[in-house]
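Researcher: Structure prediction, please.
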Amino acid sequence: QVQLMESGGDEVQAGGSLRLSCTASGYPDDRACWAWFRQVPGKEREGVADIYIESGGPHYADAARGRFTISQDNAKKTVYLQMTNLKPEDSAIYYCAAARRPVDCFAGTWGHGQEGINYWGTGTNVTVSS
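Model: Predicted structure follows.
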């Protein structure tokens, strides 16, 4: 069973940057893709970005494109989300996720369902103050 653990959440001022990290552990490791989601309390969880472990992607939701960068270090089983020019509306709990099929990470990023996500992290809090 795969476990995911995020880190890097913090409070920053608008215009600032943060880098989130997420590392996978456990066996068997059947992940085929990584994804980042975020959720504001009281609202639905939304996709942010995804990347395929072997090849493919990255893909970004409209709110993230141009400001966020997803990347991975396969040797470390770690995915990153570099966030720049942060805005107050980026404040949320950010969740790392992984799936056995790349199409399911892609679907999550584009708002076509999260049912295919197999593994979730516990979340890391990002607060952007104005």
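Model: The chain is about 5% helix and 45% strand.
Researcher: Thanks, that helps.
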